[in-house]
Amino acid sequence: MAGTSLRKNKRRAMSDINVVPYIDVMLVLLVIFMVTAPMVNPGVVNLPTVGGAKVQSLPPVFLTIDANENVIVKKDGDPTQTLNKFELGAFARSQAEKSADQPIVIAADKSIKYETVMEVMSKLKENGVKRVGLAVKTQ
After folding, report:
1. Dist. CA 51–CA 119, nearest whole Å
2. If you placed Cys at 124, which of 76, 113, 129, 138 could pair as Cys (CB 3.0 to 4.6 Å)?
3. pTM of the predicted model, to two decimals?
4. 31 to each of 12, 25, 34, 35, 46, how far by Cα in Å?
5. Using H for helix, E for strand and C for coil, what is the string for 8-58?
């Protein structure tokens, strides 16, 4: 009986996974990719060419919305007038009558609601201003 129990212990299957072949395969793949990566040409993109861009004839008018939701009009960098929401429509109509292509750039304080900026933009568009942009601060 003692001999049979020794025999069973020797034949017991090993339950561990041998990961050495997987590591070998991964190292071979790593070497292959490292050798072939510099040889791959990403391709050349042919960009279209355009004629010269039009020089902007009119400088933009800046509308600055401060933290109190007052709209300050700046032409050529100098503040010219302060508007409330009711006066903004008349200002936009007068700008559209002078020149419909003159851009208006909105610079808003980051503490005001997004809704306020959208109201100003929609008033400008409703009253005939075609070109409205937003100013942002670059980091």
Report:
1. 36
2. 129
3. 0.55
4. 38, 10, 5, 6, 33
5. HHHCCCCCCCCCHHHHHHHHHHHHHHHHHHHHCCCCCCCCCCCCCCCCCCC
